Amino acid sequence: MVEPSKECQLVLRHFFNSSGVYCINVSMANDVSLAATTAKFTVDMGLSSSSTIVMLLGVLVLILAVGIVGYSYKRLKPYRPLTEDKVATEGPQLSGVRSSSAASMLWKSLNRRGAIDNSPLLQDRPL
């Protein structure tokens, strides 16, 4: 084995951005000879504390967003008053199917008045 000297020293520096397996090939030649070597090494960066904090904050923001959406849906969904069931007042029909056409359902939905106007107390009908 040959001892290294200051005259033959070569320093290579490279900064790795991620973990992985890397190879280095070194070859030296002159007019009469060739020397070559290969080295394989592993760089394990692991999780740094900053990436762990960023990941934790991302998960917390996701949980917070889901909670806000759930709370908003529960609190802000529109109130729908109960209405009379036409099947119960008209009597039983075959297999619970209502006999209204798509056109009449469209007409009813376009001409629908607010829930307050449909109140039986405002229309002098018996309850």
Write a concise synopsis of the structure shown.
This protein is α+β, with helices and mostly antiparallel strands. Helix content is 33%, strand content 16%.
Give your account of this protein's structure.
With 127 residues, the chain is α+β, with helices and mostly antiparallel strands. The chain has a domain at 8-43. The protein is built from three helices and two strands, in the order E-E-H-H-H. A two-stranded antiparallel ribbon has the order 1-2. The mean pLDDT is 76. Pfam families: PKAT_KLD. Residues 1-23 form the PKAT KLD domain. Keywords: Membrane, Transmembrane, Transmembrane helix. This is PKAT KLD domain-containing protein. The chain crosses the membrane at residues 53-73.
